[in-house]
């Protein structure tokens, strides 16, 4: 009988056994006692939570934060605040969990799974944008008006009577002000009022839960005072779609091994002495993962767009860009010198009429035909949660002959039955897209970005993009995280091929391994030769079963939160399968209150609130980022919190049928399958 | 006849009168309507024309409000009307260029000659192509932090506590305590008030410049600043004045002429910035910092100094130019440096007053919109700083090694050694070229020169020394500078190894240049 502490034999680090054992014993053998004491303590703590954050943590096994790795699983002084540290229902002896509950929640119920796939029989439709009642819009405008008027009054008198606060806004000693008071008005007078909701310092793993530093402000958010305590909160904010943000497990073990073997840095740019074999391996794996011929890797996601787009387009080219594209794309386009035209977000009619116009008119003034037209879209939009209408774009592409660049920063890993992004979701062959770009920050728990496409294109970008010559190459631990997490999503083909002793020789010959594989079906497994021999993943990772479970859990959680919020009566945006779930709040005052009240709950929840300028002025929102690491109980907790806050703050303005909270959690599976 | 017509009209008229009175009564029921009515009545009494005029104004206002904000291109003068059929034909006829031009023969050769390292990078890495171990004078491992066991341990410890990725931008729970620790460590190390951490060195300054320099501001910059600065200035859309490379006299002239222009135009006071590098990435020249600061204070400019190369490599403990020249870091408004070069980790920083750094936390594009740095890279950098503070002897070793390399290459025929003698990157170019870096017409044959230099690089590699050309995107850079070979000195190699390596480079130069003659 496998106990919950059972670990997989191929796990390379024996020390892990011990750690897992200690956790396992705690949660099964001593489950009842510790569990009840934890609940009791949690209750007590929650009652005193707002007033005295310095309560002694009861379950602390070791308070040393940077101590030896022996007891780091439980290194955080923590109590089981409503199931954040340990599951509310202790696992039965049949259930085997390979993860730490605070990083990746334990959820064994196979009903709470769903497959993220587009149904080809249903045409892709635009998401209906629900409108709030007029009084909400009017009060929102009035709120901003009051904020602006008060801000200007304070500026007016402040500049005259409290000059010390305005030194950087006023000319002094012949220097112009460092920033103009007009430009910084929004930041100073509107954002500062809710600065406590942003840039909250955290510690530990940004997994299912996160430890946030407690802080308060005595001077209206000019400065924050840290009380020195930390609170564990449910994390529905980090981009951790597949839950690979983990300090334990196969990927972290591989990263540790890579640090021992390769060190921290590759000491240079890709073209000037910083190219490592790991780069070549990772690039080949990424290409195989997304189903393109070749790929390149850049050490920063933002820079992937901002430094490679200029290598694709230039003067005489036209860029057609969705109006809600990310800032990195805009920076890239601006540095490229190409002309830009925008089309209405995700509106295919607007896109087609724009295409007809620009192709027929040609370049402005000269009317010469454009050298090329590049369409820049995102797979999943980070503020809206909306999905690109890829099938329609591919159709338009055939007719209008533009090149297509899809930024899959959020969708790669998170969408599709195999986690291969929007192409996988819509079952569109990946090679029908010219350039596939994505990042490793979100689904892979790493950092940086990639661009994938035909080999000729990628080689040209390697040489002509800014990153290859001027920017530092990606460091080995990050590369290893990419390789390990990606290989576990793909699954590693079990019979290791006769070892190709010399994997790759030079950048040009490195692609030989890829070419041989061109005949393979796209969302297939990775051959064992595609990952370094020293990366030994535990069997549940290398056979891909764990990742399949993660992908299906993510799809379930996303749909459940979407549907649950809808049934509670909220206005949400976005696609049901999108792990990004924006909940519309509108009034700026409610936005800050919402974030604060979520954080002050018995089970603290950290949320991201976004407002102008990231969104239009009136549609302030809270943005949930669902992860596979959340359990169904976690989503319930969030729904319950939203339910209560929604009543308190008058946020429920959606149309459609409403269900009480209890019914939603009871009929969750039905809800998810019938959205 | 008239009687009948009036009788048919009668019900209509009564209906009109009824509906009018009904309308009137409902109008008066609306709160505040009496005021409007009184206003209209009184204004009409005085001047009927005014009522008409006001009515027109109201209609105009409504029309303006309803009009779409963005004017369509269709209204532009240049717009040509086409029928749908004509548009279809034009769409069919249009054939776009290829997305990218294939690599030229030279690009192909250049690209395929990039060596790939197997195993860890360091002073003596193993190459994948030959399996041989080479002496590394190409990678940025100035103080020899690559492969430090202590840093590795620290990184693993961090990994086990924080995982790898930060999974979010700094604003949204991506600010980890180790980032704040590193920011404080850098600020304390430099003696600045505060600092801000970016997750890539290259993207740091190209984000810092547009955060402060806006349209209409004046930027005075060195003509041969690195590519990242050029991009930053381009994005900022400020008015740029270039001065001659590392020529502070030319800088002063530019500052005087800007001031003169402003006085002539009587324009408003705008922000003014001097942007330059501490040690130039392009040729290893070093700026005369005390003189620069004197000028900046005299003409009331703010200084953005890129210390990507000099931070962690010069000065007694590696604090960079400020330590070398004994200038307080507070004199430099925005001190930008690289965590990846000097500290052998990844990322970049900008140090300055808290106003400067806090402003970037909202306005630095690549700070705001990018995920923060992985925690273990931040702790590695913090360790690197404490290593530098505790072991200043590595910087002495580095300087000695630089001296050894320069001494060997100075005695080599056919090349010109560029740069400052303390610079950890040593550039040299072929001697036949003019002495200034900026090109004077007629343009010399840079392609041929690059090929020769690449031959030297390849030859050196064959003989066991890894060096590289100073690579630039020639058609994208602002100036077409002389092709050079770049040697990166390191403290990790012993004096004997460095002498040997420099000797091999020298031999390669002699061999390749000998063949040319």
Automatic annotation (TrEMBL), chain A:
InterPro entries: Aminotrans_II_pyridoxalP_BS (IPR001917), Aminotransferase_I/II_large (IPR004839), AON_synthase_class-II (IPR050087), PyrdxlP-dep_Trfase (IPR015424), PyrdxlP-dep_Trfase_major (IPR015421), PyrdxlP-dep_Trfase_small (IPR015422)
Alphabetical list of Pfam families matching this protein: Aminotran_1_2
Entry-linked CDD domains: KBL_like
Cofactor(s) the protein needs: pyridoxal 5'-phosphate
Compositional bias ranges of the Low complexity kind: 51-69
Catalytic activity of the protein: L-serine + hexadecanoyl-CoA + H(+) = 3-oxosphinganine + CO2 + CoA
GO molecular function terms attached to this record: pyridoxal phosphate binding; serine C-palmitoyltransferase activity
Enzyme class: transferase
Subcellular localization(s) per the UniProt record: Endoplasmic reticulum; Membrane
UniProt cross-references to PROSITE patterns, sorted A to Z: AA_TRANSFER_CLASS_2
A single GO cellular-component term on record: membrane
Pathway as given in its UniProt record: Sphingolipid metabolism; Lipid metabolism; sphingolipid metabolism
Protein name, per record: serine C-palmitoyltransferase
Native source organism of the sequence: Paxillus rubicundulus Ve08.2h10
UniProtKB/TrEMBL annotation, chain B:
Domain Aminotransferase class I/classII large: 133-502
InterPro entries on file: Aminotransferase_I/II_large (IPR004839), AON_synthase_class-II (IPR050087), PyrdxlP-dep_Trfase (IPR015424), PyrdxlP-dep_Trfase_major (IPR015421), PyrdxlP-dep_Trfase_small (IPR015422)
A molecular-function term among this protein's GO annotations: serine C-palmitoyltransferase activity
Keyword Oxidoreductase: no
Alphabetic keyword roster: Acyltransferase, Lipid metabolism, Pyridoxal phosphate, Sphingolipid metabolism, Transferase
Broad EC category: transferase
Gene Ontology terms describing biological process: ceramide biosynthetic process; sphingosine biosynthetic process
Pathway assigned to this chain's UniProt record: Lipid metabolism; sphingolipid metabolism; Sphingolipid metabolism
The protein's required cofactors: pyridoxal 5'-phosphate
EC numbers on record: 2.3.1.50
GO cellular component: endoplasmic reticulum; membrane
Any one Pfam family match given in the protein's UniProt record, by short name: Aminotran_1_2
Superkingdom, natural source: Eukaryota
PANTHER family the UniProt entry points to: CLASS II AMINOTRANSFERASE/8-AMINO-7-OXONONANOATE SYNTHASE, SERINE PALMITOYLTRANSFERASE 1
Family: Belongs to the class-II pyridoxal-phosphate-dependent aminotransferase family.
Name by which UniProt lists this protein: serine C-palmitoyltransferase
Lineage, highest ranks first: Eukaryota, Fungi, Dikarya, Basidiomycota, Agaricomycotina
